[in-house]
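If I may wish for something, please sit down with the protein I am sending here and say whether tokens and residues agree:
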Amino acid sequence: MSLFGKLFGSGGKGDKAPNPQEAIQKLRETEDMLSKKQDFLEKKIEAELLTAKKNGTKNKRAALQALKRKKRYEKQLLQIDGTLSTIEYQREALENANTNTEVLKNMGFAAKAMKNAHQNMDIDKVDDLMQDITEQQELAQEISDAISKPVGFGEEFDEDELLAELEELEQEELDNNLLEISGPENMPLPNVPIAPVPSQPAKSRKEEDEDEMEELKAWAV
């Protein structure tokens, strides 16, 4: 069986087409096989080159045969290099195709799920629902505003009268504070003593002269 027959089967009408994973796996196996073949040929080329060098002067015929075999091995090696490049390109293309297939499959699955989720939805019903929600929110706000307003339960007072009464109380308190600071108006004054205050007797002229002399003596000493 040929190489392509091993990879893709005999190609009969009854054969089932391989899936991408199987084909990729077979291509990788072929790459491994050809890589091993490359290693084998490279070793054979080195061996034939050594044989040609060894018999170059001793056995010319053997050296020529070794060089011919070396040329054949090199030709096979070039063919394998080209085949490996082709297989590598084919494997990468198949891997990309397989990836794209999986991506499209998942996208289709997601699209079906989204369609299934939206099949019972009507845009008109959605608009009506949003309008109802808005109306209910406005109603709830009105109720909150009404509840938060203070309620007097029928007791209404004139604010001007309350302010006037408050001013009277403040003025009265201010007057009381002023009275406490100034004291009572009719507080009695202290009594003036009736008995005469004794006065000191005046010194005579002689006594004043004697005092001055005493001061001079004290200063001179």
